[in-house]
Design brief:
By secondary structure, the chain is mainly α. Helices cover 71% and strands 1% of the residues. A hairpin with a 2-residue loop joins strand 1 (126-127) and strand 2.
Length: 378
């Protein structure tokens, strides 16, 4: 709701997300922070790492350029951790991981069906020739679907249910219409990992789907629609002007390379250095990259650690457990998200649907990995 183009609804959405995060953490505390049916379960290795970074975000209050904003952003990301790694973990324990994923995909399926219908019902659903529906920006669609499509496609390949075919089609129509390129790249990488894992379970199905996908892609990339609406050659070399934002980010980081400007300050960084984006004929949010954005906030060393650990977990699971289809599905979706993060400042914003989905999927991957180690059913 907070990313819709309608101002009043967006305002309500911003208030609701705080209410949801606070209520969620309250429920976790009331239940005694349960995991696997036990109260106050010993923290996992992932919890320890995440809590260390959360403490870093809070400590950056001592050197931030905007104390109030850093405090607000730090508290919101802590609440997001509580909701994803405790509330939703407990939900998955009670009702199963698959039910949580199914409910999520069904809800998103309804939202994006309505979004497609808005093409015929609402004005201003196109922005610079790209479909945005009721969202504020076409890239808002891509952010969500970059994580949702690998999950939905993997569920269809696993269950062969028609519902998931319909959801994948709806998601794909939205993605193609919005023309967001980085999610398409992320989805392609994720689907390669998922299909490789499927080879271990159903080799014939994996080969058939791969051949069908490559044939469809070979046809699609030769169309004028692909060239004009997806490739958009005039913006390709600068990644839609993102490279200019990245150059600015490098300049900002050079002033504080070790500890950054404080968590959550990315939105103020241009103003802090007296840069007016409109004077440079630029339009965008922050520095248009989660990698550069986090470095602006907490410095390069901690940024390398943060994303290095995430990528290490993804690659480790994909390589060592490539036969574990359910785990590979989750980490492949994370890989898609991490690729999107190269081009979008989204992973550390608790008010962003992308970050909610990303941390929920990370929780499910960590949960599945831990339960296998503890010899419990995930």
């Amino acid at each position: 709701m907070a990313t819709t183009q309608f101002g009043q609804i967006a305002t309500i959405g911003k208030l609701l997300r705080w209410a949801i995060l606070i209520i969620g953490c309250g429920l976790a505390a009331k239940s005694g922070f349960r995991r696997a049916g036990h109260k106050y379960k010993i923290l996992t290795w992932a919890d320890r790492v995440i809590i260390a970074f959360l403490l870093l975000f809070l400590i950056s209050e001592t050197w931030t350029i905007q104390p109030w904003l850093t405090a607000q952003k730090s508290i919101s990301i802590i609440l997001l951790y509580g909701c994803s790694f405790w509330v939703l973990w407990d939900y998955a324990d009670h009702f199963s991981e698959q039910l949580l994923i199914h409910k999520l995909l069904q809800a998103l399926g309804i939202i994006f069906t309505i979004n497609l219908l808005s093409m015929f019902l609402l004005p201003n659903v196109w922005l610079a020739g790209r479909f945005r529906g009721f969202f504020h920006n076409p890239n808002n669609i891509g952010l969500i679907l970059g994580l949702a499509i690998p999950l939905a496609a993997a569920q269809w390949l696993r269950t062969r249910e028609r519902l998931f075919v319909a959801i994948v089609i709806i998601f794909s129509l939205n993605l193609v219409a919005c023309g967001s390129r980085s999610p398409m790249l992320g989805i392609a990488v994720a689907m390669v990992a998922i299909l490789i894992s499927l080879l271990a379970k159903r080799p014939n199905q994996a080969i058939a789907i791969s051949l069908l996908a490559m044939s469809g892609l070979a046809f699609f990339i030769q169309t004028d629609f692909f060239t004009e609406n997806i490739v958009r050659e005039s913006t390709l070399t600068t990644a839609s002007n993102r490279t200019y934002f990245w150059d600015l980010a490098k300049t900002y980081i050079a002033h504080r390379p070790d500890f950054g400007h404080g968590f959550g300050t990315e939105t103020l960084i241009h103003e802090h250095y007296g840069i007016v984006l409109t004077d440079l004929q630029l339009r965008g949010h922050g520095v248009m990259s989660s990698y550069y954005g986090l470095a602006v906030q907490i410095g390069w060393p901690f940024t390398y650690c943060f994303f290095g650990l995430l990528w290490a977990f993804v690659v480790y699971c994909c390589v060592k457990y490539w036969r574990n289809y359910e785990l590979v599905t989750l980490v492949a979706s994370l890989a898609s998200g991490l690729i999107i993060c190269i081009f979008e400042p989204a992973i550390y914003s608790a008010g962003n649907i992308f970050s909610f989905l990303f941390w929920m999927i990370l929780m499910l991957a960590v949960r599945r990995k831990c339960y296998q180690k503890w010899r419990l059913s995930p």
